[in-house]
Amino acid sequence: MNTISTKIAIGYAHSKLILIGEHAVVYGQPAIAIPFPLTVRSVIEQSTGTIKIKSPHYTGPIDKMPIKLEGIEACIKATLDYLDRPVKDILIRLDSTIPLGRGLGSSAAIAIALVRSLFSYFGQSPSQKELSSLVQIAEIYAHGNPSGIDMAAIASDSPIWFQKGKEAKPLTAGAPLYIVVADTGRISDTHSAVEQVREKVLLDPINMQKSMKLIGNIAQEAKNVLSHGNSYLLGKLLDKNQEMLTNLGVTDDGLNRLIETARNTGALGAKLTGSGRGGCMIALAQNLEHGKVIADHLMKSGADKTWYYSTEKYESRIYTRQRSYRIDNTKHK
Ligand code: MEV
């Protein structure tokens, strides 16, 4: 009897949420990000000829990828080059539960899962440094000049304290957080949001630098209350951060409506998360049941999708208008 064995390798990556400090982090201020249990899976299989990709966003040969995915193409080529392997003879299957372009780190998560799977296919495992420099290639295409927080948060299984140019530090929360996330259903273009803030900084450098510093101070306070498990104070800091993000001009009516709904439903605090101007908002609930109540209200207020989970149990549910179902959040690595 003949047996056919196909070489196969799998890499996973989870998504991320910025709890405090987006945008100011680009200007050197500290920020806090936490893992969000939506995942990307990259499966590498043996094949022949040109590399082919199968994904919900594109299926076909690597050299015909649409412009918006060219960072991924560059990352695949750079990884194979780094591993000293030819750019051929593999099939890449990508599955993701992370919506694209919503400030949840989908581009960094795809790149991290890809790099992990390619290393694994060739019997290796990337160091943190290798992962960073290869994923950075895709991130520059996606975001222009990213601070690096998305990549660091996605590469970490715990909350992180992040400052541009420095190594991310893991943070321990003194108590579980009950997080609710709502998607406006609209793309949040990080590149142009970061550019819009940059223009504001150029026009009014003194006041804008002050705003950035204030956001950095909020992150410092948040780090402290997070370690003491004081979700009530943490919620207040989320609200304060949202005020500052409003001053930076990156929130919009759709986000504000959802943030208001979450607060009116008893959220401890709420703000946009990621680059804003579309994308997602985040709220702190008092417990998992309360998270469900907030998520339901957010759906009624026009959210495209909501998720809620506890950072302790890593348990989450996705709510859509039609149905709800649980994410199987078995830890992959
Ligand atoms: C995007 O998730 C976070 C921003 O601060 C951009 C960055 O840090 O690269 C808006």
Question: How many distinct folded domains?
Answer: 2
Please report the first level of CATH classification, the CATH class of the largest domain. Alpha Beta
CATH architecture of the largest domain: 2-Layer Sandwich
Ligand catalogue: (R)-mevalonate
Q: And the CATH topology of the largest domain?
A: Ribosomal Protein S5, domain 2
Radius of gyration: 20 Å
Please report which band the strand proportion falls in: under 5%, 5-15%, 15-25%, 25-35%, 35-45% or over 45%. 15-25%
Please give the share of residues in helix.
25-40%
Structural class: alpha+beta
Number of helices: 9
SSE string, helices as H and strands as E: EEEEHEHHHEEEHHHHEEHEEE
- Taken from the alpha-carbon principal axes, the silhouette is globular
- The pLDDT mean sits at 91
* Oligomerization state: single chain
Low-confidence stretches: 320-333
Q: Could you give the distance between the termini?
A: 35 Å
Main sheet?
Answer: 7 strands, mixed
What's the total number of strands? 13
Topology:
Layout: E1 8-20, E2 31-46, E3 52-54, E4 59-61, H1 70-82, E5 90-96, H2 106-121, H3 128-143, H4 149-154, E6 160-162, E7 169-170, E8 178-183, H5 190-203, H6 205-227, H7 231-248, H8 253-264, E9 269-273, E10 280-285, H9 288-300, E11 305-310, E12 315-319, E13 324-327
Parallel strand pairs: 3-5
Antiparallel strand pairs: 1-2, 2-5, 2-6, 3-4, 6-7, 8-10, 8-11, 9-10, 11-12, 12-13
Helix pairs in contact: 1-2, 1-3, 2-3, 5-6, 6-7
(R)-mevalonate (MEV) is lined by residues 18, 22-23, 25-26, 103, 143, 146-147, 149-150, 190, 194, 274-275.
